């Protein structure tokens, strides 16, 4: 069966019965992924019962991402068990489009402005924590900060998503346990949830997160029904539900309602658990990716002090020299260089390397090869983002390519947030969030990086991190 499915594309000549290269896949190495991508536009591997086709080039990746008639997102086998099979991310076709439309209002410019105060509060608190770790706990010695960046980004996400409906202790529990969900959702795992395995611990952690988000949903519905101001994504969504329901009730009573009074998007009321599932997907989409990006940002800035100096100068200038000026959308949108630094970080070290899709029906991906129904097809992002024809000297970190260069002229290669019907709904939020983080850090903190032989080596754990976990020392700026 494997030989027949493989056809003419690159891949192992034979497959080990049942498990295939399972043991190798349990400890994924970036170098092996990169070699696979370079082996050809299409290659394959088979693990357990799953035949996997890897689409390595930009055009092959885009073809998969823009083929909803043939493929649908599948993440990994256990994803439906953790995120729940009724989750909106597993919807297909019109059902997915309609659900997504109801979420678009949560990421408008006006909505993003609403979330900034909560994000800034989290950054202020965690930057103080970073100082305490470096100066008090570690006595000024370098320490691995990747775990702390993961906690920071989880806290930012939770405050953005559910505001203060979630107590600090629950937020800390999610930050600590989300690692278990990440481990359970690695590309290759044992396909059955057995007690005390990674997938089992991941399922328990996911159940806990769903329960906490459902509690937040119930609290938001009570508060927003009083006409309170929306301060987080959850509030904005509940407010939209309430406005839609009031509009429908007026229409049912036969009232004449002007077009101006009709909500921009009419949505139904969602249960607490439906809301919880959606918020978990937001966390799933953001937590590992932003943790990766923030880790690389801090390391890259420390290793390139001239870049950090420019970011600091731009952020202070945007605030007329007062580092205490609050974040705003207009402030962030005016920071051209900081934006370029974030975009170059996402290109240079893209957090998401691959996005698995399930083939719904035989998919003629090229003139010479058809991916069989039931297979997994995995478009990759790294080769497109390191294409020397589009990004000259791609292994060199160069924010200027987004300002004086022509990097912006190649949107087809910018696959950081995907493309097609399942592109990342929060891509603007994610980039502004990273800009806000590194901009504030540049004004409040100094930091030094202890470079080790593993600093530029890439560790794959759902996303990518430095193998030495980014060893830093933070100190207070005057």
Automatic annotation (TrEMBL):
UniProt key word Lipid metabolism: no
Cofactors that this protein relies on: heme
Localization in the cell: Membrane
CDD domains: CYP61_CYP710
Topology of the protein relative to the lipid bilayer: Single-pass membrane protein
Iron listed as a keyword: yes
UniProt GO cellular component terms: membrane
EC number: 1.14.19.41
Gene Ontology biological-process annotations: sterol metabolic process
InterPro entries according to UniProt: Cyt_P450, Cyt_P450_CS, Cyt_P450_E_grp-IV, Cyt_P450_sf
Annotated heme binding sites: 424
Domain of life: Eukaryota
Reaction(s) catalysed (UniProt annotation): 5-dehydroepisterol + NADPH + O2 + H(+) = ergosta-5,7,22,24(28)-tetraen-3beta-ol + NADP(+) + 2 H2O
Primary location group: membrane
One Pfam family, short name: p450
Gene Ontology MF term list: C-22 sterol desaturase (NADPH) activity; heme binding; iron ion binding; monooxygenase activity
Group of enzyme by EC: oxidoreductase
Keywords: Heme, Iron, Membrane, Metal-binding, Monooxygenase, Oxidoreductase, Transmembrane, Transmembrane helix
Family under the similarity heading: Belongs to the cytochrome P450 family.
Protein name: sterol 22-desaturase
Source organism: Carpinus fangiana
């Amino acid at each position: 069966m494997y030989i027949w499915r493989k056809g003419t594309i690159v891949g192992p000549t034979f497959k080990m019965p049942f498990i295939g290269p399972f043991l190798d896949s349990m400890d994924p190495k970036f170098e092996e992924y990169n070699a696979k991508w370079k082996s050809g536009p299409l290659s394959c591997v088979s693990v357990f019962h799953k035949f996997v086709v890897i689409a390595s080039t930009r055009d092959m990746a885009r073809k998969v991402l823009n083929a909803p008639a043939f493929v649908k997102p599948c993440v990994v086998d256990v994803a439906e068990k953790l995120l729940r099979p009724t989750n909106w991310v597993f919807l297909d076709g019109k059902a997915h489009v309609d659900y997504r439309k109801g979420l678009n209002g949560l990421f408008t410019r006006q909505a993003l402005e609403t979330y900034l105060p909560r994000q800034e509060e989290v950054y202020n608190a965690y930057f103080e924590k970073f100082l305490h770790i470096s100066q008090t706990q570690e006595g000024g010695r370098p320490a691995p900060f990747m775990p702390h960046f993961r906690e920071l980004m989880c806290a930012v996400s939770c405050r953005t998503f559910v505001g203060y409906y979630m107590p600090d202790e629950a937020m800390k529990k999610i930050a600590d346990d989300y690692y278990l969900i990440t481990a359970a959702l690695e590309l290759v795992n044992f396909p059955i949830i057995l007690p005390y395995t990674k997938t089992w611990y991941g399922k328990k952690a996911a159940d806990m997160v769903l329960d906490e988000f459902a509690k937040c949903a119930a609290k938001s519905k009570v508060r927003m029904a009083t006409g309170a101001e929306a301060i987080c994504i959850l509030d904005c969504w509940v407010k939209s539900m309430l406005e839609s329901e009031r509009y429908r009730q007026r229409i049912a009573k036969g009232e004449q309602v002007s077009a101006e009074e009709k909500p921009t998007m009419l949505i139904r009321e969602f249960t607490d658990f439906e809301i919880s599932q959606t918020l978990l997907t937001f966390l799933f989409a953001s937590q590992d990716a932003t943790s990766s990006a923030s880790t690389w940002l801090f390391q890259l800035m420390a290793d390139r002090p001239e870049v950090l100096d420019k970011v600091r100068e731009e952020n202070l200038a945007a605030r007329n020299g007062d580092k205490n000026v609050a974040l705003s959308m207009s402030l962030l949108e005016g920071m051209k260089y900081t934006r370029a630094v974030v975009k170059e970080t996402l290109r240079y070290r893209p957090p998401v390397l691959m996005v698995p899709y399930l083939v719904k029906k035989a998919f003629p991906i090229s003139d010479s090869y058809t991916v069989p129904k039931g297979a997994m097809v995995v478009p990759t992002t790294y080769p497109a983002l390191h294409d020397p024809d589009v990004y000259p000297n791609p292994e060199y970190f160069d924010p200027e390519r987004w300002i004086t260069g022509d990097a912006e002229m190649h949107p087809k290669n910018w696959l950081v947030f995907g493309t097609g019907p399942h592109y990342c709904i929060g891509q603007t939020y994610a980039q502004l969030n990273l800009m806000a983080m590194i901009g504030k850090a540049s004004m409040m903190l100094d930091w030094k990086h202890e470079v080790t032989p593993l600093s530029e080596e890439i560790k794959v754990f759902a996303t990518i991190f430095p193998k030495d976990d980014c060893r830093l020392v933070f100190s207070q700026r005057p």
